[in-house]
Write a structure and sequence with these properties.
Layout: H1 31-42, H2 45-50, H3 52-55, H4 67-95, H5 99-102, H6 104-107, H7 113-146, H8 152-167, H9 170-199, H10 211-223, H11 229-233, H12 239-267, H13 286-298, H14 300-314, H15 323-338, H16 346-370, H17 390-403, H18 411-422, H19 432-457
Helix pairs in contact: 1-9, 1-12, 4-10, 4-12, 7-8, 7-13, 7-14, 7-15, 8-14, 8-15, 9-12, 9-13, 10-16, 14-15, 16-17, 16-19, 17-19
Protein backbone atom coordinates (compact mmCIF):
# COMPACT_ATOMS: atom_id res chain seq x y z
CA UNK A 1 0.00 0.00 0.00
CA UNK A 2 1.33 3.43 -0.96
CA UNK A 3 0.32 6.90 0.12
CA UNK A 4 0.60 10.17 -1.78
CA UNK A 5 3.06 12.62 -0.27
CA UNK A 6 2.74 15.49 -2.73
CA UNK A 7 1.23 16.70 -5.98
CA UNK A 8 1.34 14.54 -9.07
CA UNK A 9 4.17 15.26 -11.50
CA UNK A 10 3.37 18.26 -13.67
CA UNK A 11 0.81 19.69 -11.24
CA UNK A 12 0.93 22.37 -8.55
CA UNK A 13 0.23 21.77 -4.83
CA UNK A 14 -3.46 21.84 -3.93
CA UNK A 15 -3.21 25.33 -2.40
CA UNK A 16 -1.15 26.84 -5.23
CA UNK A 17 -2.00 28.36 -8.61
CA UNK A 18 -2.26 25.77 -11.40
CA UNK A 19 0.65 25.29 -13.78
CA UNK A 20 -1.47 25.25 -16.95
CA UNK A 21 -4.94 26.45 -17.92
CA UNK A 22 -6.42 22.95 -18.08
CA UNK A 23 -5.69 22.27 -14.40
CA UNK A 24 -8.23 23.12 -11.65
CA UNK A 25 -8.12 26.51 -9.93
CA UNK A 26 -8.01 26.31 -6.11
CA UNK A 27 -10.41 28.64 -4.26
CA UNK A 28 -8.30 29.28 -1.17
CA UNK A 29 -7.99 33.06 -0.71
CA UNK A 30 -10.08 34.80 1.95
CA UNK A 31 -11.26 38.37 1.93
CA UNK A 32 -8.42 39.16 4.33
CA UNK A 33 -5.91 37.66 1.88
CA UNK A 34 -7.30 39.78 -0.95
CA UNK A 35 -7.56 42.90 1.20
CA UNK A 36 -3.99 42.83 2.46
CA UNK A 37 -2.63 42.00 -0.99
CA UNK A 38 -4.44 44.88 -2.68
CA UNK A 39 -3.64 47.23 0.18
CA UNK A 40 0.03 46.57 -0.44
CA UNK A 41 -0.42 47.13 -4.17
CA UNK A 42 -2.21 50.41 -3.40
CA UNK A 43 0.89 51.92 -1.74
CA UNK A 44 3.55 52.30 -4.40
CA UNK A 45 6.79 54.25 -4.63
CA UNK A 46 6.06 54.51 -8.35
CA UNK A 47 2.74 56.04 -7.39
CA UNK A 48 4.49 58.62 -5.20
CA UNK A 49 6.64 59.77 -8.11
CA UNK A 50 3.66 59.52 -10.44
CA UNK A 51 1.83 62.12 -8.34
CA UNK A 52 3.77 64.63 -10.45
CA UNK A 53 1.06 63.99 -13.04
CA UNK A 54 -1.64 64.85 -10.50
CA UNK A 55 -0.15 68.21 -9.54
CA UNK A 56 0.79 69.01 -13.14
CA UNK A 57 -1.63 67.00 -15.34
CA UNK A 58 -0.86 68.97 -18.50
CA UNK A 59 2.93 68.78 -18.15
CA UNK A 60 3.58 72.50 -17.78
CA UNK A 61 6.54 72.01 -15.43
CA UNK A 62 4.80 73.72 -12.51
CA UNK A 63 1.92 72.81 -10.16
CA UNK A 64 -1.40 73.89 -11.69
CA UNK A 65 -3.61 72.36 -8.99
CA UNK A 66 -3.95 73.61 -5.45
CA UNK A 67 -3.07 71.21 -2.66
CA UNK A 68 -6.76 70.72 -1.80
CA UNK A 69 -7.63 70.04 -5.46
CA UNK A 70 -4.79 67.53 -5.82
CA UNK A 71 -5.84 65.66 -2.67
CA UNK A 72 -9.48 65.62 -3.80
CA UNK A 73 -8.48 64.35 -7.23
CA UNK A 74 -6.51 61.58 -5.53
CA UNK A 75 -9.51 60.53 -3.44
CA UNK A 76 -12.10 60.74 -6.24
CA UNK A 77 -9.88 59.01 -8.79
CA UNK A 78 -9.03 56.21 -6.37
CA UNK A 79 -12.70 55.61 -5.47
CA UNK A 80 -13.75 55.42 -9.13
CA UNK A 81 -10.86 53.20 -10.17
CA UNK A 82 -11.17 50.88 -7.16
CA UNK A 83 -14.89 50.30 -7.70
CA UNK A 84 -14.09 49.27 -11.27
CA UNK A 85 -11.49 46.83 -9.98
CA UNK A 86 -14.04 45.38 -7.58
CA UNK A 87 -16.47 44.62 -10.41
CA UNK A 88 -13.65 42.96 -12.33
CA UNK A 89 -12.91 40.84 -9.24
CA UNK A 90 -16.49 39.55 -9.28
CA UNK A 91 -16.12 38.36 -12.88
CA UNK A 92 -12.92 36.50 -11.99
CA UNK A 93 -14.37 34.92 -8.85
CA UNK A 94 -17.53 33.84 -10.67
CA UNK A 95 -15.87 32.27 -13.70
CA UNK A 96 -12.64 31.05 -12.09
CA UNK A 97 -10.77 32.31 -15.15
CA UNK A 98 -7.72 34.62 -15.27
CA UNK A 99 -8.21 38.04 -16.83
CA UNK A 100 -7.19 37.43 -20.42
CA UNK A 101 -8.98 34.08 -20.57
CA UNK A 102 -12.06 35.87 -19.23
CA UNK A 103 -12.01 38.04 -22.37
CA UNK A 104 -12.75 34.95 -24.48
CA UNK A 105 -16.34 35.32 -23.33
CA UNK A 106 -16.39 38.94 -24.50
CA UNK A 107 -14.50 38.84 -27.80
CA UNK A 108 -14.15 35.13 -28.51
CA UNK A 109 -11.06 32.96 -28.11
CA UNK A 110 -9.21 34.16 -31.21
CA UNK A 111 -10.16 37.83 -30.87
CA UNK A 112 -9.04 37.80 -27.23
CA UNK A 113 -5.47 37.45 -28.50
CA UNK A 114 -5.40 41.19 -29.34
CA UNK A 115 -6.00 42.49 -25.78
CA UNK A 116 -3.78 39.67 -24.50
CA UNK A 117 -0.81 40.90 -26.52
CA UNK A 118 -1.49 44.48 -25.39
CA UNK A 119 -1.68 43.34 -21.79
CA UNK A 120 1.56 41.38 -21.98
CA UNK A 121 3.26 44.53 -23.28
CA UNK A 122 1.82 46.73 -20.53
CA UNK A 123 2.55 44.19 -17.77
CA UNK A 124 6.17 43.95 -18.87
CA UNK A 125 6.28 47.76 -19.02
CA UNK A 126 4.93 48.14 -15.49
CA UNK A 127 7.31 45.48 -14.21
CA UNK A 128 10.21 47.39 -15.76
CA UNK A 129 9.10 50.64 -14.13
CA UNK A 130 8.74 48.91 -10.78
CA UNK A 131 12.21 47.37 -10.97
CA UNK A 132 13.64 50.80 -11.81
CA UNK A 133 11.87 52.32 -8.80
CA UNK A 134 12.98 49.49 -6.48
CA UNK A 135 16.60 49.78 -7.59
CA UNK A 136 16.45 53.56 -7.16
CA UNK A 137 15.00 53.13 -3.67
CA UNK A 138 17.76 50.69 -2.76
CA UNK A 139 20.38 53.16 -4.01
CA UNK A 140 18.84 55.91 -1.87
CA UNK A 141 18.93 53.63 1.17
CA UNK A 142 22.53 52.62 0.48
CA UNK A 143 23.55 56.27 0.21
CA UNK A 144 21.80 57.07 3.50
CA UNK A 145 23.33 54.14 5.36
CA UNK A 146 26.75 53.64 3.75
CA UNK A 147 27.35 56.95 1.98
CA UNK A 148 28.08 55.23 -1.33
CA UNK A 149 25.26 53.58 -3.34
CA UNK A 150 27.38 51.37 -5.59
CA UNK A 151 26.49 50.28 -9.14
CA UNK A 152 22.84 50.68 -10.12
CA UNK A 153 22.75 47.53 -12.26
CA UNK A 154 23.38 45.41 -9.16
CA UNK A 155 20.16 46.61 -7.51
CA UNK A 156 18.19 45.92 -10.67
CA UNK A 157 19.50 42.36 -10.82
CA UNK A 158 18.71 41.74 -7.13
CA UNK A 159 15.19 43.16 -7.48
CA UNK A 160 14.58 41.13 -10.64
CA UNK A 161 15.80 37.89 -9.05
CA UNK A 162 13.63 38.29 -5.92
CA UNK A 163 10.62 39.26 -8.02
CA UNK A 164 10.95 36.24 -10.29
CA UNK A 165 11.44 33.86 -7.35
CA UNK A 166 8.15 35.02 -5.77
CA UNK A 167 6.20 34.32 -8.96
CA UNK A 168 7.04 30.62 -8.83
CA UNK A 169 4.79 30.19 -5.75
CA UNK A 170 2.33 33.11 -6.18
CA UNK A 171 -0.32 32.17 -3.63
CA UNK A 172 2.40 31.43 -1.11
CA UNK A 173 3.75 34.93 -1.76
CA UNK A 174 0.30 36.38 -0.99
CA UNK A 175 0.28 34.57 2.35
CA UNK A 176 3.69 36.01 3.23
CA UNK A 177 2.40 39.49 2.39
CA UNK A 178 -0.64 38.94 4.61
CA UNK A 179 1.31 37.66 7.60
CA UNK A 180 4.43 39.80 7.67
CA UNK A 181 4.42 42.71 5.24
CA UNK A 182 1.11 44.49 5.75
CA UNK A 183 1.63 45.43 9.40
CA UNK A 184 5.06 46.88 8.66
CA UNK A 185 3.68 48.89 5.75
CA UNK A 186 0.80 50.29 7.80
CA UNK A 187 3.18 51.41 10.54
CA UNK A 188 5.53 52.99 7.99
CA UNK A 189 2.70 54.91 6.30
CA UNK A 190 1.34 56.15 9.62
CA UNK A 191 4.74 57.42 10.71
CA UNK A 192 5.54 59.13 7.41
CA UNK A 193 2.12 60.77 7.32
CA UNK A 194 2.47 61.99 10.90
CA UNK A 195 5.98 63.28 10.18
CA UNK A 196 4.95 65.21 7.05
CA UNK A 197 1.85 66.63 8.75
CA UNK A 198 4.00 67.89 11.60
CA UNK A 199 6.20 69.85 9.20
CA UNK A 200 3.27 71.45 7.37
CA UNK A 201 2.58 71.70 3.64
CA UNK A 202 4.21 74.81 2.18
CA UNK A 203 2.70 74.57 -1.32
CA UNK A 204 0.64 77.64 -2.19
CA UNK A 205 -1.34 78.75 -5.23
CA UNK A 206 -2.80 76.58 -7.93
CA UNK A 207 -6.48 76.13 -8.77
CA UNK A 208 -9.21 73.57 -9.47
CA UNK A 209 -9.23 74.24 -13.21
CA UNK A 210 -7.49 71.02 -14.29
CA UNK A 211 -9.17 68.86 -11.62
CA UNK A 212 -10.63 66.29 -14.03
CA UNK A 213 -7.39 65.94 -15.96
CA UNK A 214 -5.67 65.16 -12.66
CA UNK A 215 -8.44 62.77 -11.63
CA UNK A 216 -8.00 60.93 -14.93
CA UNK A 217 -4.37 60.25 -14.09
CA UNK A 218 -5.35 58.77 -10.72
CA UNK A 219 -8.06 56.64 -12.32
CA UNK A 220 -5.47 55.43 -14.82
CA UNK A 221 -3.21 54.30 -11.98
CA UNK A 222 -6.02 52.16 -10.52
CA UNK A 223 -7.23 50.93 -13.91
CA UNK A 224 -3.70 49.82 -14.74
CA UNK A 225 -4.39 46.90 -12.35
CA UNK A 226 -7.62 45.99 -14.15
CA UNK A 227 -6.12 43.48 -16.61
CA UNK A 228 -4.73 41.33 -13.78
CA UNK A 229 -7.49 41.49 -11.15
CA UNK A 230 -9.08 38.17 -12.15
CA UNK A 231 -5.67 36.46 -12.04
CA UNK A 232 -6.00 36.66 -8.24
CA UNK A 233 -9.78 36.97 -7.75
CA UNK A 234 -10.28 33.55 -9.38
CA UNK A 235 -8.71 32.03 -6.26
CA UNK A 236 -11.19 33.71 -3.88
CA UNK A 237 -13.51 31.60 -1.78
CA UNK A 238 -16.47 33.78 -2.80
CA UNK A 239 -17.42 36.74 -4.97
CA UNK A 240 -18.19 38.77 -1.85
CA UNK A 241 -14.71 38.23 -0.44
CA UNK A 242 -13.09 39.00 -3.80
CA UNK A 243 -15.00 42.29 -4.17
CA UNK A 244 -14.91 43.43 -0.54
CA UNK A 245 -11.28 42.57 0.11
CA UNK A 246 -10.07 44.36 -3.00
CA UNK A 247 -12.23 47.46 -2.63
CA UNK A 248 -11.45 48.05 1.06
CA UNK A 249 -7.74 47.31 0.81
CA UNK A 250 -7.08 49.17 -2.42
CA UNK A 251 -9.22 52.20 -1.50
CA UNK A 252 -7.66 52.83 1.90
CA UNK A 253 -4.10 52.27 0.71
CA UNK A 254 -4.56 54.06 -2.62
CA UNK A 255 -5.90 57.20 -0.98
CA UNK A 256 -3.21 57.14 1.71
CA UNK A 257 -0.45 56.67 -0.85
CA UNK A 258 -1.72 59.39 -3.18
CA UNK A 259 -2.21 61.95 -0.41
CA UNK A 260 1.21 61.13 1.04
CA UNK A 261 2.79 61.60 -2.39
CA UNK A 262 1.10 64.96 -2.91
CA UNK A 263 2.26 66.12 0.53
CA UNK A 264 5.83 64.95 -0.13
CA UNK A 265 5.96 66.83 -3.45
CA UNK A 266 4.64 69.90 -1.71
CA UNK A 267 7.49 69.62 0.82
CA UNK A 268 10.11 69.86 -1.93
CA UNK A 269 8.34 72.74 -3.68
CA UNK A 270 7.57 70.55 -6.69
CA UNK A 271 10.67 69.67 -8.70
CA UNK A 272 9.30 68.22 -11.95
CA UNK A 273 12.80 67.59 -13.34
CA UNK A 274 13.59 64.82 -10.86
CA UNK A 275 10.68 62.50 -9.93
CA UNK A 276 12.83 60.76 -7.31
CA UNK A 277 13.19 63.90 -5.19
CA UNK A 278 9.72 63.07 -3.90
CA UNK A 279 11.45 60.55 -1.62
CA UNK A 280 13.67 63.17 0.07
CA UNK A 281 11.13 64.12 2.79
CA UNK A 282 10.73 60.44 3.68
CA UNK A 283 14.42 60.02 4.50
CA UNK A 284 14.88 63.23 6.48
CA UNK A 285 14.98 61.35 9.81
CA UNK A 286 16.46 58.06 11.00
CA UNK A 287 13.04 56.53 11.58
CA UNK A 288 11.99 57.84 8.18
CA UNK A 289 14.87 55.96 6.57
CA UNK A 290 13.67 52.73 8.19
CA UNK A 291 10.09 53.36 7.06
CA UNK A 292 11.28 54.17 3.57
CA UNK A 293 13.22 50.90 3.60
CA UNK A 294 10.02 49.03 4.44
CA UNK A 295 8.28 50.64 1.46
CA UNK A 296 11.19 49.81 -0.86
CA UNK A 297 11.17 46.14 0.13
CA UNK A 298 7.36 46.06 -0.10
CA UNK A 299 7.57 47.40 -3.65
CA UNK A 300 8.64 43.93 -4.77
CA UNK A 301 5.02 42.78 -4.55
CA UNK A 302 4.22 45.27 -7.33
CA UNK A 303 6.85 43.85 -9.65
CA UNK A 304 5.83 40.34 -8.57
CA UNK A 305 2.20 40.98 -9.56
CA UNK A 306 3.19 42.33 -12.96
CA UNK A 307 5.66 39.57 -13.81
CA UNK A 308 3.28 36.83 -12.65
CA UNK A 309 0.36 38.28 -14.62
CA UNK A 310 2.55 38.59 -17.70
CA UNK A 311 3.00 34.82 -17.54
CA UNK A 312 -0.69 34.10 -16.81
CA UNK A 313 -1.74 36.39 -19.67
CA UNK A 314 0.61 34.59 -22.03
CA UNK A 315 -1.15 31.34 -21.13
CA UNK A 316 -4.19 32.58 -23.04
CA UNK A 317 -1.98 32.25 -26.12
CA UNK A 318 -0.16 29.12 -24.88
CA UNK A 319 -2.71 27.35 -22.64
CA UNK A 320 -0.56 24.29 -21.94
CA UNK A 321 2.66 26.19 -21.24
CA UNK A 322 4.02 25.83 -17.72
CA UNK A 323 3.50 29.15 -15.90
CA UNK A 324 6.80 28.67 -14.05
CA UNK A 325 8.71 28.71 -17.33
CA UNK A 326 6.73 31.73 -18.51
CA UNK A 327 7.45 33.50 -15.20
CA UNK A 328 11.17 32.92 -15.62
CA UNK A 329 11.04 34.31 -19.16
CA UNK A 330 8.95 37.38 -18.25
CA UNK A 331 11.09 38.07 -15.16
CA UNK A 332 14.31 37.90 -17.16
CA UNK A 333 12.84 40.15 -19.87
CA UNK A 334 11.68 42.79 -17.39
CA UNK A 335 15.02 42.73 -15.59
CA UNK A 336 16.95 43.16 -18.82
CA UNK A 337 14.79 46.06 -19.95
CA UNK A 338 15.05 47.71 -16.52
CA UNK A 339 18.78 48.05 -17.10
CA UNK A 340 18.05 50.21 -20.16
CA UNK A 341 14.84 52.19 -19.54
CA UNK A 342 14.33 55.69 -18.11
CA UNK A 343 11.22 57.22 -16.53
CA UNK A 344 10.68 60.11 -18.94
CA UNK A 345 7.79 58.44 -20.76
CA UNK A 346 5.84 57.56 -17.60
CA UNK A 347 2.95 60.02 -18.09
CA UNK A 348 2.35 59.03 -21.70
CA UNK A 349 2.50 55.36 -20.80
CA UNK A 350 -0.03 55.93 -18.02
CA UNK A 351 -2.55 57.71 -20.23
CA UNK A 352 -2.21 55.12 -23.00
CA UNK A 353 -3.08 52.35 -20.54
CA UNK A 354 -6.17 54.24 -19.48
CA UNK A 355 -7.21 54.79 -23.07
CA UNK A 356 -6.96 51.08 -23.86
CA UNK A 357 -8.42 49.40 -20.80
CA UNK A 358 -11.07 51.81 -19.47
CA UNK A 359 -13.37 51.43 -22.52
CA UNK A 360 -12.63 47.69 -22.69
CA UNK A 361 -13.78 47.40 -19.09
CA UNK A 362 -16.98 49.29 -19.96
CA UNK A 363 -17.74 46.75 -22.70
CA UNK A 364 -17.07 43.87 -20.29
CA UNK A 365 -19.23 45.28 -17.49
CA UNK A 366 -22.23 45.96 -19.73
CA UNK A 367 -22.06 42.60 -21.52
CA UNK A 368 -21.40 40.56 -18.37
CA UNK A 369 -23.71 42.26 -15.84
CA UNK A 370 -26.33 44.17 -17.88
CA UNK A 371 -26.85 42.00 -20.97
CA UNK A 372 -26.75 38.78 -18.96
CA UNK A 373 -23.51 37.41 -20.34
CA UNK A 374 -22.65 35.94 -16.93
CA UNK A 375 -25.28 33.24 -17.51
CA UNK A 376 -23.37 31.61 -20.37
CA UNK A 377 -19.89 33.18 -20.37
CA UNK A 378 -17.73 30.99 -22.62
CA UNK A 379 -14.03 30.87 -21.68
CA UNK A 380 -13.22 27.75 -23.68
CA UNK A 381 -10.70 27.58 -26.50
CA UNK A 382 -13.70 27.18 -28.86
CA UNK A 383 -15.43 30.41 -27.78
CA UNK A 384 -16.88 31.92 -30.99
CA UNK A 385 -15.49 35.21 -32.23
CA UNK A 386 -17.64 38.26 -31.48
CA UNK A 387 -16.07 40.87 -33.73
CA UNK A 388 -18.91 43.34 -33.12
CA UNK A 389 -17.75 43.80 -29.51
CA UNK A 390 -14.53 45.35 -30.78
CA UNK A 391 -16.56 48.32 -32.08
CA UNK A 392 -17.55 49.85 -28.71
CA UNK A 393 -14.01 49.28 -27.45
CA UNK A 394 -12.57 51.12 -30.46
CA UNK A 395 -15.03 54.02 -30.13
CA UNK A 396 -14.26 54.36 -26.42
CA UNK A 397 -10.53 54.36 -27.15
CA UNK A 398 -11.00 57.06 -29.80
CA UNK A 399 -13.05 59.16 -27.35
CA UNK A 400 -10.28 58.97 -24.76
CA UNK A 401 -7.61 59.97 -27.27
CA UNK A 402 -9.66 62.88 -28.62
CA UNK A 403 -9.91 64.32 -25.11
CA UNK A 404 -6.45 63.38 -23.79
CA UNK A 405 -4.12 62.32 -26.64
CA UNK A 406 -1.22 60.21 -25.44
CA UNK A 407 1.98 62.27 -25.54
CA UNK A 408 3.88 60.28 -28.15
CA UNK A 409 5.59 62.08 -31.02
CA UNK A 410 3.42 61.94 -34.12
CA UNK A 411 0.59 60.12 -32.35
CA UNK A 412 -0.60 63.10 -30.31
CA UNK A 413 -0.23 65.34 -33.38
CA UNK A 414 -2.60 63.11 -35.34
CA UNK A 415 -5.25 63.28 -32.64
CA UNK A 416 -4.79 67.03 -32.29
CA UNK A 417 -5.44 67.31 -36.04
CA UNK A 418 -8.58 65.20 -35.63
CA UNK A 419 -9.74 67.45 -32.80
CA UNK A 420 -9.56 70.36 -35.19
CA UNK A 421 -11.23 68.43 -37.98
CA UNK A 422 -14.30 67.63 -35.87
CA UNK A 423 -14.30 71.04 -34.17
CA UNK A 424 -13.65 69.70 -30.65
CA UNK A 425 -12.33 72.08 -28.02
CA UNK A 426 -11.40 70.17 -24.88
CA UNK A 427 -12.91 71.74 -21.76
CA UNK A 428 -11.58 71.41 -18.19
CA UNK A 429 -14.71 69.49 -17.11
CA UNK A 430 -14.15 66.75 -19.70
CA UNK A 431 -12.94 63.54 -18.09
CA UNK A 432 -11.40 61.25 -20.68
CA UNK A 433 -11.93 58.27 -18.38
CA UNK A 434 -15.61 58.85 -17.67
CA UNK A 435 -16.57 59.95 -21.19
CA UNK A 436 -14.73 57.07 -22.89
CA UNK A 437 -16.42 54.66 -20.46
CA UNK A 438 -19.82 56.17 -21.27
CA UNK A 439 -19.32 55.96 -25.05
CA UNK A 440 -18.14 52.36 -24.87
CA UNK A 441 -20.95 51.36 -22.49
CA UNK A 442 -23.73 52.96 -24.54
CA UNK A 443 -22.38 51.51 -27.77
CA UNK A 444 -22.26 48.06 -26.16
CA UNK A 445 -25.90 48.42 -25.16
CA UNK A 446 -26.78 49.38 -28.72
CA UNK A 447 -24.93 46.61 -30.56
CA UNK A 448 -24.53 43.95 -27.90
CA UNK A 449 -28.10 43.12 -26.91
CA UNK A 450 -29.13 41.63 -30.23
CA UNK A 451 -25.77 39.96 -30.71
CA UNK A 452 -25.93 38.33 -27.27
CA UNK A 453 -29.45 37.03 -28.04
CA UNK A 454 -28.39 35.57 -31.40
CA UNK A 455 -25.34 34.04 -29.71
CA UNK A 456 -27.58 32.19 -27.23
CA UNK A 457 -29.93 30.88 -29.93
CA UNK A 458 -27.05 29.95 -32.25
CA UNK A 459 -28.39 32.08 -35.13
CA UNK A 460 -25.48 34.51 -35.44
Amino acid sequence: MTTSTGPAPGTAPANEAPLTLDQPTPRVLSGWDQGTFWANLGVSLLGFSGVLVVLDPLGTGRPTLSFAAAVTASVVGTLIGTFALGLAAITGARTGAPSMVLLRGLFGAKASYLPTVLNVLQMVGWAVFELVVISTGLKILARQVFGEPGPGWLYVLVAGAVTTALTLRPLGALRVIRRYVTVAVVLAILYLGWDLAGRGVPMEGGSWKDFWFATDSVIAVSISWLPLVADYARHSRSEKEAFGGLVVGQTLAGIAGSVLGVAALAMIAFDSTDPYKVFDPFTATGVGVVCFGVLVLREVDQSFANVYSTAVSAQNLLPRADRRVLCLISGALATGLALLVDMDSFAGFLYLIGAVFIPMFAVLVVDFFVLGGHRDWDVSEQAPTRWVMLLPWALGFATYQLIAPTGIAGWSDAWAWLQGAVGLTVQPWMSASLLSFAVAALTTLAVGRGHRSRHRTGTG
